[in-house]
């Protein structure tokens, strides 16, 4: 859709959450396209807040100026990433050639530690940029707005495309999911049992250190991984198995798939060339304790991990008291300074005033 351009200035701000994939995306092709369909919970308390002040560029024929602050401080590494990203999307958002931008971003959780900080930060930035386009052009419908934000977010960080939707989002083409696409995520919240809309996710911070291998580098290693094709087939099978489970609310079958997916993800890292291990000793200890607790107490507590050492505990709201007591009395001892983020499935991004 072509929109007429209006030279304006102003500022926008969005809060966008992280997400935790249940069926993982690990391996891509082309321009940030997934090798397999994937699906995630949208979180609530793990989020990024990004603001963008924009005005017509000061020097007409010069490159637009981009200032960037992360948590109130200059961060050259992050700024370089943002500048490169914005430059890469100017063919899609040509108005970016006309504006100087001042961008500020912050997280409610440690960045680069395997809690999908790029998902929340890049989705928040994408929402800001599409919001500017909406203000500088003809109106978008809500569906157009979020779909385009998902496309732009995907180009910054693949998993970010899922963060623009509430509760649960799926990304990647599947014959079983109408309107699914490799280009953008779609809202899947209408197709899940109510139990999953109040699901809890306690994130155990085993380490807040920046992980040793970026997700981008990890994805690239899948190109030569001997197990890649088998993995993509496994993910497709798990997606097919998960769809009816999400509809009926079978939390034990749901948890079994979530755990298998997490362990497969980390197994792929270990057998890549070069190999790498992102779980820590305490990650493994926590996993053992979760399995023991589930068996002894008959509580449907399951785990998953992203590409990092921190462990996400997934459990229904009805088990909140039992699980959080277990966390305080047992699991927190294996966290960095006892740090736990008590999160839950959330209602998606919000525009900030």
Furnish the topology, listing elements before pairings:
Elements: E1 10-23, E2 28-29, E3 33-34, E4 38-56, E5 66-70, E6 73-74, H1 76-88, E7 99-107, H2 117-135, H3 142-156, E8 168-171, E9 185-187, E10 200-204, H4 215-221, H5 228-248, H6 251-270, H7 281-297, E11 302-305, E12 311-315, H8 320-329, E13 340-344, E14 350-351
Helix pairs in contact: 2-3, 5-6
Structure, explained:
This protein is of the alpha+beta class. The chain contains 8 helices and 14 strands. It folds into 2 domains: 10-192, Ribosomal Protein S5, domain 2; 194-344, Alpha-Beta Plaits. The chain has helices spanning 76-88, 117-135, 142-156, 215-221, 228-248, 251-270, 281-297, 320-329, and strands spanning 10-23, 28-29, 33-34, 38-56, 66-70, 73-74, 99-107, 168-171, 185-187, 200-204, 302-305, 311-315, 340-344, 350-351. Strands 1, 4, 5, 6, 7, 8, 9 and 14 form an 8-stranded mixed sheet that branches. The protein has a 4-stranded antiparallel sheet with strand order 11-12-10-13. It has a two-stranded antiparallel sheet with strand order 2-3. A hairpin with a 2-residue loop joins strand 5 and strand 6 (73-74). The longest helix has 21 residues, at 228-248. The model has no long low-confidence stretch (mean pLDDT 94).
Question: Class by helix and strand content?
Answer: alpha+beta
Considering DSSP H and I runs of 4 or more, what fraction of the residues is helical?
A: 25-40%
The backbone outline, from C-alpha atoms, is: globular
Q: Which series of helices and strands comes N to C?
A: EEEEEEHEHHEEEHHHHEEHEE
The DSSP helix count reads: 8
Assembly context of the chains: single chain
**Would you identify the CATH architecture of the largest domain?**
2-Layer Sandwich
Determine the CATH topology of the largest domain.
Ribosomal Protein S5, domain 2
For this structure, what is the CATH class of the largest domain? Alpha Beta
Radius of gyration: 20 Å
Question: Distance between the terminal alpha carbons, to the nearest Å?
Answer: 28 Å
Number of domains: 2
Low-confidence stretches: none
Could you tell me the mean pLDDT? 94
Strand content: 15-25%
Instruction: Give a count of the beta strands, DSSP E runs of length 2 or more.
Output: 14
Largest sheet, in brief, is: 8 strands, mixed
């Amino acid at each position: 859709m072509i929109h007429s351009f209006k030279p304006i200035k102003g500022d926008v701000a969005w809060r966008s959450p992280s997400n935790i994939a249940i069926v993982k995306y690990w391996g891509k092709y082309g321009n940030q396209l997934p090798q397999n369909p994937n699906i995630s919970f949208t979180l609530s308390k793990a989020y990024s807040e990004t603001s963008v002040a924009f005005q017509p560029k000061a020097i007409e024929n010069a490159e637009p100026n981009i200032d960037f602050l992360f948590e109130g401080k200059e961060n050259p590494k992050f700024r370089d990433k943002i500048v490169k990203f914005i430059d890469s999307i100017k063919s899609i958002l040509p108005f970016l050639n006309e504006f100087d931008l001042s961008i500020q971003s912050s997280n409610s959780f440690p960045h680069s530690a395997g809690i999908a900080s790029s998902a929340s930060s890049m989705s928040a930035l994408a929402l800001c940029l599409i919001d500017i386009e909406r203000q500088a052009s003809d109106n978008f419908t809500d569906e157009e707005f979020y779909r385009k934000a998902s496309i732009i977010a995907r180009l910054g960080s693949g998993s970010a495309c899922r963060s623009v939707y509430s509760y649960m989002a799926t990304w990647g083409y599947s014959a079983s999911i109408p309107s699914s696409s490799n280009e953008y995520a779609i809202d899947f919240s209408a197709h899940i049992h109510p139990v999953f809309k109040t699901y809890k996710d306690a994130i155990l911070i085993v380490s807040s250190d920046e992980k040793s291998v970026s997700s981008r580098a990890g994805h690239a290693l899948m190109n030569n991984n001997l197990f890649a094709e088998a993995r993509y087939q496994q993910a497709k099978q798990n997606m097919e198995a998960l769809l009816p489970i999400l509809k009926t609310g079978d939390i034990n079958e749901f948890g079994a798939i979530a755990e298998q997916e997490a362990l497969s993800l980390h197994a792929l890292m270990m057998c890549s060339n070069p190999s790498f291990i992102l779980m820590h000793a305490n990650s493994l200890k926590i996993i053992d304790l979760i399995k023991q607790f589930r068996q002894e107490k008959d509580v449907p507590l399951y785990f998953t991990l992203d590409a990092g050492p921190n462990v996400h505990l997934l459990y229904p709201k009805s088990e909140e008291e039992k699980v959080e007591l277990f966390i305080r009395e047992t699991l927190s001892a294996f966290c960095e300074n006892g740090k736990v983020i008590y999160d839950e499935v959330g209602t998606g991004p919000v525009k900030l005033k």
